Amino acid sequence: MGGPELEQLIALLARLPGLGPRSARRAALRLLQQPETRLLPLASAMQNAARAVKTCRVCGNLDSADPCSVCTDPTRENGLICVVESVGDLWAMDRAGIYRGLYHVLGGVLSALAGTGPDALNWPALMRRIESSRTSSTPVTEVILALGATVDGATTAHWLAEQLRPMGVSVTRLAQGIPIGGALDVLDDGTLAAAMRARRSA
């Protein structure tokens, strides 16, 4: 039905989060019904993004600039670093508009089941950022651990807090507002705001 090109499009769409085979078929149909205004612009935007977007060497964000627009924003509070699990979490925090410091993407959390240990996480770069900031006019004074309220997130936050304490910075965690088992990138802005305001020592 529809030939291999259509089946390939549906199969690729079905790999996206939140899209199963049926949703992928509906999305493919909508795109193909108006290829000039939907499919071709989308394909062009995807090609442009694939060529231009890169990982920020400082914080791990995705941007067309390296360092990214967050790291180079002169209005940011350079003394604060908010540690998140993923780029999606960074975008969720920044979209809420409740935090104006810098970020650091860990790239995952510790997980015994998944076999993810400290070596798989981007935490040594965080330590280097803190250390190198000591000679700047705005050294890092606080690290906020904004990890999901899951068992793995809590384990990672506890472990990371232990690594950070000898660095002489204040280490805080998000508090009320984050439900147990909740992921940051699906929370509403109000919930994120409440959690940021009520952060506590880790």
Automatic annotation (TrEMBL):
Short name of any one Pfam family annotated for the protein: RecR_ZnF
Start and end residues, zinc fingers (C4-type): 56-71
GO terms classed as biological process: DNA recombination; DNA repair
CDD domains in the record: TOPRIM_recR (cd01025)
Domain Toprim intervals: 79-179
GO molecular-function terms, A-Z: DNA binding; zinc ion binding
Alphabetical keyword list: DNA damage, DNA recombination, DNA repair, Metal-binding, Zinc, Zinc-finger
Keyword NADP: no
Membrane-spanning ranges: none
Similarity-based family: Belongs to the RecR family.
HAMAP family assigned to the protein according to its UniProt record, in alphabetical order: RecR
Protein task: May play a role in DNA repair. It seems to be involved in an RecBC-independent recombinational process of DNA repair. It may act with RecF and RecO.
Protein name stated in the entry: Recombination protein RecR
Lineage: Bacteria, Pseudomonadati, Pseudomonadota, Alphaproteobacteria, Acetobacterales
